[in-house]
Amino acid sequence: MHSPSRHPQVSATARRLLADELEHLVAVSTERLIEVEPSYRSLGGETLAEQMRKNLSLTLARIAGDPPAPEFAHAAAETGEIRAAQQVDLLAVSRSFRIDLQLLWEAFLDDARRAGLETNADYLAGLLQVWEAVEANINEMTEAYRRTAERLRQQHTEIRTAAFQRLLDLGESRNPAGVAKQLTTLAFDPRRPFLVLVSDLREGDYSAISVVQTRLSRHGARSYFGWQQQSLVGLIQVPARDAAHRADDLAPLIAELGEHRTALAEVPTPGAVGRALHGARQLVTTATSPGVRQLRNHWLEAVTSAEPEITGALAEQVFAGFAELSDHVREELTRVITAFLSTNGTITEVSQAAFRHRNTVRARLAQIENLTGLSLAHPSDIALLALAFSAWRRDSTVHS
């Protein structure tokens, strides 16, 4: 920055202000700052005044052309570091230095009037030293502020990343106290339920996640996303007022993830994280098409995926007789079983869901009982049919 010739009267005024009027300048500057920037009120008057004192001392030393004392030589950079750590907005911090400029400009003009120099061209040109000194402070403060903010942001990111990974590990080990601690670090309320999300979105596809996180934030929901075991894993906590509809209302907010195989599982307490994660992962594994699925609506698929050997053996036993059927009959029976398991099981409900006549449904249900050896009047047999049917369809899809 170009420095104009230093006027001796400007330097003398700067030294006098530093020696005789510094405390008055500090008091006025602090008062003005708190008035125009309410965010400074919580910092404490004495602490704020102490930093003001250092900055004004540095500014006046620079105007005078004197080397600053060691205790305030780096005051501007120190201010940037402190305010960044306090999360004071950078524009507000810059405004505090502009207040210094205005205050000092007034003081120098008053001194010029007393000395009869208010029209002296050389003196007025020398007053540019006031502006340049404040600008030097602002530049040093801004650089330090941005450097510190970036360092703190990286530290914050590292802390949250570590907390997320630790939470997943503790969830798998069934450590609710540890999970609750990590949830707090991630700014979640461990006393309230939340959701676990698992998706086959490929690692590194940040654009979709960014859109989803922004939309969730706009609706007041907290979220955190990361990758584990080659899957996207997310935590979502909706506002307390929406807790009753937390899962049902999320689909539109995470629409981009609906283009992938995605599962949502509810977590009522921190101790349930591991089970929710496991169930959601199994649901993603068994899904045959993209879309958002809620675990509570797809338990059968998750269970059959989690226990493929046992459910596979059950399916082989229950549906052994289906192998000898024609494709048409097998398709008809599959339609009726699907309708039976998705309704309350009455002939009327099943016939409506399967688009078949009531008599046809009766005949098909009897045929199913005969082939499977299960009674559709017994709840335990219906449960076995549901598990076996889910595994049978899974295996049929795999081998088709």
From TrEMBL:
Taxonomy, superkingdom: Bacteria
Organism: Leucobacter chromiireducens subsp. chromiireducens
Name under which the protein is recorded: PucR family transcriptional regulator
Residue ranges constituting the CdaR GGDEF-like domain according to the UniProt record: 175-283
Gene3D superfamilies (alphabetical): PucR C-terminal helix-turn-helix domain
RsbT co-antagonist protein RsbRD N-terminal domain boundaries: 26-158
Domain PucR C-terminal helix-turn-helix positions: 333-390
Assigned protein family: Belongs to the CdaR family.
Lineage: Bacteria, Bacillati, Actinomycetota, Actinomycetes, Micrococcales
